[in-house]
Design goal:
Helix content is 29%, strand content 26%. By secondary structure, it is α/β, with parallel strands linked by helices. It is globular.
Length: 305
């Protein structure tokens, strides 16, 4: 699925160098089809890296995807190059009159704060409320998943005794879900978080289904409304060295951090990690886009709660 992004976006050249098929605005205008409209609310501190990671995973199926990048206008970000957000991102209030096939809400480095203490919480809560009637399927990642579960269902988060950090095996509870077509019974995925959403509260909510989990890392993927809400507690989108960069960043800051589990060969940070989650990451995002394509009304004005 070629993604339509501006040629000037730094991710454009990065993806072209990987031989990922991206489509410039001008070429897209000459294709007589309705592209899928997918928005990405990028809350990660690694702005450019996250753009590349997610756009890479959205690019591998045959239809056109029109990408809109969103920022929280109530938050002053210092993690992107000067002018980048102003040039390529829309403030959330500017898209409230639009409708989308899909929306991705990323993680954010605020998980140890109470939700209401996050400086852009009111704005994000408005976005979450807006998705119920204006987005066919919303995919929430890490803290974005915790925020969505809290806003919609009152699911609390709680601190972990130590950071969940590494590559963990997960099992599929719902084998026949469209999200898991082609998945093995067990698959690997990166985790990097200090908190978790309360599993008992999730299990007690009849609207929620725990699709994937593991004894070691807990709940991984939760869905609601037949896949129109998807909550992913980890980071399938991570690059091979993302956990390595996080580990070395915390070491350099003198923060208490353990070696990420099941990541480096022989748990030796001097050795290059072996990627063991890439295939399932691509499969998951392709399955999500295929679900969105099959289920979204052709006319987005027909979207209903």
């Amino acid at each position: 699925m070629p993604i339509k992004i501006p040629v000037a976006l730094p991710a454009y050249n990065a993806l072209r160098e990987e031989h990922v098929f991206v489509m410039a605005d001008i070429r897209a205008l000459h294709q007589d089809i309705r592209p899928l409209k997918v928005a990405i609310a990028n809350l990660m501190p690694t702005t450019l890296d996250t753009e590349v990671q997610l756009l890479r995973l959205l690019s591998n199926t045959p239809l056109q995807v029109d990408i809109t990048l969103l920022r929280m206008g109530s938050h002053a970000s210092h993690n992107a190059p000067p002018g980048h957000l102003e040039r390529f991102y829309s403030n959330s209030e500017k898209i409230m009159h639009e409708r989308f096939d899909g929306l991705i809400i990323t993680g954010a480095p605020v998980e140890t704060l109470a939700f209401e203490a996050v400086d852009y919480w009111d704005e994000l809560a408005a976005v979450l409320d807006y998705t119920s009637k204006n987005v066919w399927s919303t995919l929430h990642i890490c803290w974005g998943a915790q925020a969505g579960l809290y806003r919609r269902y009152g699911i609390p988060k709680k601190p972990l005794s130590q950071k969940l950090f590494g590559i963990f095996p997960h099992r599929v509870n719902e084998q026949h879900s469209a999200l898991f077509r082609g998945f093995d019974d067990e698959f690997l995925a990166p985790q990097s978080r200090h908190t978790e959403s309360d599993r008992e509260a999730i299990a007690a909510e009849p609207a929620l289904t725990i699709q994937s989990e593991t004894a070691e890392a807990g709940v991984f993927i939760v869905t609601a409304r037949d896949g129109r809400e998807i909550y992913v507690t980890g980071h399938l989108e991570y690059d091979p060295l993302t956990l390595d960069r996080e580990y070395r960043r915390d070491i350099s800051k003198g923060l208490p951090i353990a070696v990420p589990q099941h990541y480096y060969p022989d748990d030796d940070p001097a050795k290059t990690p072996v990627v063991r989650w890439r295939a399932h990451a691509h499969l998951f995002f392709s399955n999500w886009l295929n679900y969105v394509y099959q289920e979204t009304p052709y006319n987005l004005a027909d979207l209903m709660r």
